[in-house]
Design goal:
Length: about 220
């Protein structure tokens, strides 16, 4: 009986050892997959840029402040604006300018107390493209995401393929470019010296400006 017992125990031990080896292999494989996923996530997050948005024309509107974030994740650019103290319940035009600086008080060349769109360009440069609902097109689309709520706050978010953007703007790089947010309440009486068509003058009064600078990489969702 003892001899038969030993023979029956041997296969059981071998089976247990095999099961243990398989379990270790699965844990090792799972750990390897997790490490690979983590590495891919880190590698997919590219350069990150930031612009601190500061008030413009705060004599006719509140101190519109915020932050603009520009990041690269894989083959996509991700753009985000978080704004506060903008004129409430208003859809704000916003754009990326090709210049390298925001205007100061000296930009008010006609001394009417307001820096208009034409005076802005002396420092911020011409509009490169609007920050609207479709960054892969040169046409201006809607600005529904940049509509301020009752408290003057809004968050804008958009994504565009890097290839699509670089086809429109070869050798594009966000660092040093200027982000500008526009728009004041139409009830405000603007002086006749403001440039632009009468029907659009309020829409294109700059209220906040920031220069994009490189920053530490951030995780983008």
């Amino acid at each position: 009986m003892k001899k038969n017992s030993r023979r029956s125990v041997a296969p059981i031990c071998l089976a247990a050892i095999a099961a243990l080896l398989m379990a270790c292999g699965k844990e090792s494989g799972s750990s390897s997959q997790q490490n690979t996923s983590a590495q891919e996530e880190v590698e997919s997050t590219g350069p990150s840029y930031r612009a601190q948005m500061r008030p413009l024309n705060n004599t006719i509107t509140e101190n519109a402040i915020g932050v603009a974030l520009w990041s690269q994740k894989g083959s996509d650019y991700i753009v985000q604006l978080n704004m506060t103290n903008t004129p409430s319940n208003l859809e704000h035009f916003q754009a990326l300018h090709e210049g390298s600086a925001c205007p100061d008080e000296a930009a008010d060349k006609n001394s009417d107390g307001i820096i208009d769109g034409e005076e802005l360009k002396l420092a911020a440069g011409k509009i490169l493209f609007p920050l609207d609902s479709n960054l892969s097109s040169k046409n201006t689309d809607d600005f529904a995401q940049s509509r301020a709520n009752d408290f003057g706050n809004y968050v804008y978010w958009s994504k565009v393929g890097s290839r699509a953007l670089e086809q429109l703007y070869p050798r594009f790089h966000p660092a040093g470019k200027v982000v500008v947010v526009y728009g004041v309440d139409s009830q405000y009486a603007l002086p006749g010296s403001i440039s632009g068509a009468d029907s659009n003058k309020h829409r294109y009064i700059p209220i906040s400006c920031g220069v994009i600078r490189a920053t530490n990489a951030q995780k983008v969702y």
